[in-house]
Every structure is written in structure tokens, then in C-alpha cells.
Amino acid sequence: MRKPPAQLDHLHVWHPFTQMRDWLKRQPVVIVSGQGSLLRDDKGREYLDANSSIWTNLHGHGHPKLNAAIVSQLGKVAHSSALGLANEPASLLAGQLVAAANRTTGRRTQPRLDKVFYSDDGSTALEVALKLAYEFARRTGRARASKFLSLEGAYHGDTVGAVSLGHIDLFHKAYSGLLFKSDIVMAPYCYRCPFNKARPERTDAREYRRCQWECVSKVEEKFANQKRRGAPYAAFVVEPLIQGAAGMIPQPAGWLRRVAGIARSNGALLIADEVMTGFGRTGVAQPQARRSHADTLFACQQEAVQPDFLCLAKGMTGGYLPMAATLTTKEVFDAFLGEYEEFKTFFHGHSYTANQLGAAASLASLKILQSAESRQARRRLEDSLQEALQNLWSLSQVGDIRRVGLIAGIELVRDWRTKEPFDLSDRAGIRVCEAMARRGVLTRPIGNVVVLMPPYCTTATQLRRMVSVLQESIEETLAR
User: Fold this and answer.
1) How many CB atoms are closer than 10 A to CB 291?
2) Do the Cβ atoms of 89 and 97 come closer than 8 Å?
3) Is residue 146 scored above 90 in pLDDT?
4) Contact status, residue 150 vs residue 134, Cβ threshold 8 Å
5) In CA terms, which of 155, 215, 260, 344 is 20 to 30 Å from 221?
6) How far apart are CA 274 and CA 294, in angstroms?
7) Burial 54-73, CB ≥16 within 10 A → b, else e
8) In 75-159, which residue ranges form alpha helices assigned H by DSSP?
9) Cα–Cα distance, 239 to 311 (Å, whole number)
10) Of 330, 348, 370, the domain-final residue
11) Is residue 71 part of a domain?
12) What are the tens digits of pLDDT across the range 293-309?
């Protein structure tokens, strides 16, 4: 007799980023189906997917156009190797990604992204950019040591190269002996910035901050010091507009544009990690955009910044299949051209690179994203999210509410007046999310920060339910 899925899970499955001792103490939620923003478990209970299945699902579960695209491709071929062969959907997708990436490049002096290297997930997309930037800097003489600079609290994936760019001890310290050294610079965390002289208010800390852009000065100092040592940085790596695993830390308007200018003036390449922020997640148009276009799909475009490497994954297929892409310039591409025996080839690849099913899903997702109907729906959903979140300011355990587009991070504290954080042992974020799950809303915290990141098909009623459940769960779990 076959064992039930929950029992088999406990017997055999090792879950990511999960303390398995705690996991084995409770019955897991076993998801069996989904439609739109809803997921259903094996007991027939429904849940709202409040974090888009870990930031991947764009248009909802069981979307008919995505389903149809995959079924249609299955009738042709599911996968063939990209080593020595091309295929139709991946070629079409590359053309559309290049077109979308170059839609708003700002000044003509900014690079043009012309080449697409496919891989499997966000980590490998960053690994590709890292290796290309390293070798490009070495071959062109830009940086002998090929050193990299990234932000405090950075998370760029779990492969060894991507982990080397990260600066979250909780995730990365255990592997320090495996990693190469990368430099770290202050991130613009307005709520807990030591240079922010403002008293806490009941609004996003970016709105009431009092500072002199010291976070930008720190970036400038870092580049200057490295230049004086005669070893300029090969590349500066950043999640544009908002850092995800750092705790949904948004950047104040203008920060990205300023630091991109510093990197450029020092000859460093710019690597944009848009694994989370890409494909419309940061909003249809932001107030800080120097050139707002209704059809911008990437966070960088909202500050008219064009990177040398654009790393994409997560929502690329609409959350259906693992697929990633690293876009770069012809200049980088040309540095790897040569005779066969010169071994200038980029020796890197994946078995499922340019997979046809993933490419077909991505093409269908892009078509939906670029429709006027989708843009209008996302804009309305942003407004609904902003309105609903205001109710949370009444809770003394809510210190900061940070929203960029359809990403929200709610930081939990002991008291908003003091900003005193909960200890890790309090498991504040986890307990709140467990209470939300009991009420039929699924999400996952980052420490003391609860994340809301709804699929784009979420209705205003469903969104209000997500926020009201969060409010009830904070009151039940943390209120004294």
C-alpha cells in the first residue's frame, strides 16, 4: 500500500532553507492543485499564494495561455541540446528579451545588450555574469585582479561563485572556506541607516529620512580606494531598486542612478541581478523614473540605467519552469571570439540550456506582460496594495512598511518608537507566517520581515484578505 505524500515527504525530502528538526515535528501542507492566486492542499483546503510561490509566479497558477503554449510545444519537441544546435522558441525569446532590455537605455552612451546566454536559475544566471565579467576584465586589461564589489546584505544565489558575491552570514558563513573574497559596501537601508537622523514615523522610512546621501559616498570611497591600490573593480553587482533576501530593502529614488554613474566613471562593469525584480515586479512605472514608459519590464529601466549584464530568472517563464538568462553586450561577446585552438570559447554550460518548453512559456508570459490589459491590471493592483498596507501602521509591532511595485516587506519590531528588533530566537516572522497559514494565506518571512508579493492576477478582494490576515496574525502572535 502506497504511503501518503506527507509521510513520504517526512521520510525522504530534504527541504531548502528549512530546519528539518522543526519540519518533522508538524504535518506539512501538501499542495495538489492551483488556479489563479489560489493553491489547494490534499485535504481540500484553499490558500492564497501571497508570495507568488517564492517570487516566481507572475500570472497565477493554471493560466490558460501559458498552459496552451507548453502543450503546443510538447507536440513538437520538449528539449534538444543547445551544444551545437539552435531551436526556434529560444531564438525568438532571445530576440524579444533583447528588444525589451533595450527599450529605455537613457543616454546613448549606455551599453546595448545584444547577446543572451541561457541557463537554469538565478544562481546560474549570476554565475554566468560573474565568469564573463572576470574573463572580460582580464582579457581587456581593465582589471588585473578582477575583484568584485557588492552590497551589504547581498544575496545572489547559492552556487559557489554567486555565494562569493553574497554578504549574509546566516546563509554564507558556513561556506567561507570555499569562496573567493569580494568586497562589501554599505547598502541604502533607510529604516536602520546610522546616518538617518529622522525620528521614526508611520510611513516608509525613505519618505522621512534625513541624510546627506552618505550611502552613495561610501560607494564612491570604495571605488576610489580600490583605484588608488592600482586594482580597479571588474564589476559592481546590485539588485536594482530593492534587495530581496536582505529583507526587502528598497533604495531611495536616485540611488541606483548615482552609484551606476560612479561604477561607470571608475571603469567597472555593472551587473544587475533582476532575478526577483524583473518582468514587471517593481511596477509599471515608478515616480522616480527619469523616463517612465508603460512597457518597461526591468527595474533598471525605471532609473534609466542600463547594465552591462542583466540577470533574469524566477518569473521569466511565468513561474512554470526553471529557466534563466544573462544578457550582455557585443563588446563582452567579442572578447570570446577567436580561432578554435586559441581556446577563447566561454567554457560554461548547462544540459537544459535554451530548453524549448521554458522558452515557449517565457514567450507566452512576455506577450501577456506587454499587453495593455496586463499593464492596467498591475497598476490597479499596485494601488490596491498601497491602500491596504496603510491599515498595518496601527500596529505597534510594525516598524516599517516597504513597497516597490508589487513587492512589500513589513518589518516587525518590539515597538515602532524604538525600532528594537525581535531576537532571532523569538521566531517572530515565522510565527506570524504560521498564523497566516492557519487562516489560509501562504507566505514566508525573511527574519523579522514578512513578504507580500502577490501574483498579478490577484483581485483587490484577495489582496485585502492577504493584508487583513497579516494584521490578524501579528495581533494574535506578537501583541502583548
Assistant:
1) 14
2) no
3) no
4) no
5) 155
6) 18
7) bbbbbbbbebeebeebbeeb
8) 88-101, 122-140
9) 10
10) 370
11) no
12) 456 899 999 999 999 99
Number of domains in the chain: 2
Would the pLDDT of 454 be above 70?
Answer: yes
State pTM to two decimals: 0.95
What domain range includes position 442? Answer: 5-62+373-478
321-351 tens-digit pLDDT = 999 999 999 999 999 999 999 999 999 999 9
Task: For 378, list phi and psi in degrees, rounded to 5.
Answer: -65, -40
Q: Are residues 215 and 186 in contact, defined by beta-carbon separation less than 8 angstroms? A: yes
Q: Are residues 90 and 198 in the same domain?
A: yes
* Beta strands per DSSP E along 253-363: 269-273, 309-312, 324-329
Of 449, 119, 111, 441, whose CA–CA distance to 275 is shortest? 119
- The CB-side HSE value for 30 (13 A sphere, CA atoms) comes to 13
CA neighbor of 451 nearest in space, from 394, 391, 388, 407: 407
| Interhelix angle 428-438/460-478, nearest 10 degrees | 130
Please report which helix (H) or strand (E) contains residue 407, including its range: strand 407-412
Residues 181 and 44 in one domain: no
Radius of gyration of the chain (CA): 22
pLDDT of residue 295: 65
CATH, residue 145? 3.40.640.10
| Grid coordinates given for 187 | 547598502
Q: What is the pLDDT of residues 387-445, one digit of tens each?
A: 999 999 999 999 999 999 999 999 999 999 999 999 989 999 999 999 999 999 999 99
Dihedral sign computed on CA atoms, order 16, 159, 283, 446: positive
Select from 349, 370, 391 the last residue of a domain.
Answer: 370
Number of H helices, E strands in the chain: 16, 17
Cα(274)–Cα(272) distance, rounded to whole angstroms? Answer: 6
Quick one: 387 and 435 in the same domain? yes
Read off the C-alpha cell for 211. 541624510
pLDDT score of 108: 61
Residue 238 near residue 439 (C-beta atoms within 8 A): no
Q: By C-alpha distance, which of 111, 112, 162, 100 is closest to 365? A: 100
Contacts of 57 (CB under 8 A, 6+ apart): 49, 315, 318, 319, 455
91-109 pLDDT per residue, tens = 999 999 999 999 865 556 7
CB 131 within 8 A of CB 115: no
Q: Residue 110 pLDDT more than 90? A: no
CATH code: domain of residue 402: 3.90.1150.10
Confidence category of residue 480, pLDDT binned at 50, 70, 90: low
Instruction: List the grid coordinates of 458.
Output: 490577484
pLDDT category, 82, cuts 50, 70, 90? Answer: very high
Q: Which residues pair with 434 in a beta bridge?
A: none
pLDDT range class, residue 141, cuts 50, 70, 90: confident
